[in-house]
């Protein structure tokens, strides 16, 4: 008799069942988050409503002048038409998290945003280490259309770079101490937003990526506190930091200690 | 009258610092922790003793006034649930004085990142949801 033995077929079926189960659970997590986020947005006290007596009176509005055009009726169906940040409550919460996948912006859960930020930063660090010994090297690129695919692609790039680094006999350079990660050459990496607390440094995307990649060199993930909504890391200099999606400020790096510089200090880095 | 101290970094005022704490609690779901306030008092304004207590009291009162409430975030361990800290009937005055009394009784130490985190109700609701989503994501990745 030819074909696959019964036990192998059974293993395949079990793997397929597990994959399917994981996908269903993942979708459930995403759906629950999106529902919550939209309800949360819906009940923001600062979000304008259409005045009573008008068509759609009492319903949530996006703030535009024409009531008919501005109704935000279905908390799930308006995915592609994000309400501007300034309309979402009085405290400036961000809209549903999104990440760039290829040329598209895709909705993601906060957990996925963090995993993608970390995976991409680790891939950049590994690629930079390779280029110190092989300037011409470039990772293979692959197309992906999902957030999980983008995370897997970044993890594969890191793995490919580390394999090549080993083949070349190269290694990661020594991790910079945390103060130097934050302020290379003593230069302030960003700025303090008006009204923001001292210690909260706002930076552009290039600085955010550089800081996170530098911090992750030689860092190992540690268990986060129960309420911390991100991933936590321990650096070789003994300092700790966390990466999370802030509902108000987007990608954020938290430090458990204050880092002092001549005329400023940093305990949190937020992406503008 | 003695002028209010300015910070050693950029000459900021205490008013500016205290407003910044309230802003942070209102604009970040994880709020702000007492250790950050104590550190500012000591390292930025050079305060100790009664001056430091007065500064911390002023900052905590500003946080409680906007609805932020203290929580302890312990390092994660099995079965642990982070918790609100309660003082009497939890009136604003009781919370402010309760936090101050505990901190003073401990010898006014520098505090850890998870000690007395001041979180708004809105921030707590968001954290609950995200942490639950994270738990379910981890569960989804675990083979059955």
In short:
The complex is a heterodimer of chains A (272) and B (144). Chain A is of the alpha+beta class.
Characterise the protein shown here.
- The complex is a heterodimer of chains A (272) and B (144).
- Chain A has three domains: 13-94, no CATH class; 97-173, no CATH class; 176-272, no CATH class.
- By secondary structure, chain A is α+β, with helices and mostly antiparallel strands.
- Chain A is built from six helices and eight strands, in the order ααββαααβαβββββ.
- The longest helix of chain A is centred in the first third of the chain and has 37 residues, at 6-42.
- Mean pLDDT of chain A is 76; it is low at 39-91.
- Chain B has 144 residues and is of the alpha+beta class.
- Chain B has one domain (14-141).
- In chain B, helix 1 packs parallel to helix 3 and helix 3 (49-65) runs antiparallel to helix 4 (92-105).
- At the A-B interface, helix 1, helix 3, strand 6, strand 7 and strand 8 of A face helix 1, helix 2 and helix 5 of B.
Write the layout of secondary structure elements.
The complex is a heterodimer of chains A (272) and B (144).
Chain A: H1 6-42, H2 67-70, E1 98-101, E2 104-107, H3 110-131, H4 147-167, H5 178-182, E3 200-203, H6 205-216, E4 220-222, E5 230-234, E6 240-246, E7 250-260, E8 265-271
Parallel strand pairs in A: 3-8
Antiparallel strand pairs in A: 1-2, 4-5, 5-6, 6-7, 7-8
Chain B: H1 14-26, E1 32-33, H2 34-44, H3 49-65, E2 69-72, E3 83-84, H4 92-105, E4 117-119, H5 121-141
Characteristics of this structure?
heterodimer; A: 272 residues; alpha+beta; 3 domains; six-stranded mixed sheet; two-stranded antiparallel ribbon; 6 helices; 37% helix; 17% strand; B: 144 residues; four-stranded antiparallel sheet; 8% strand; elongated
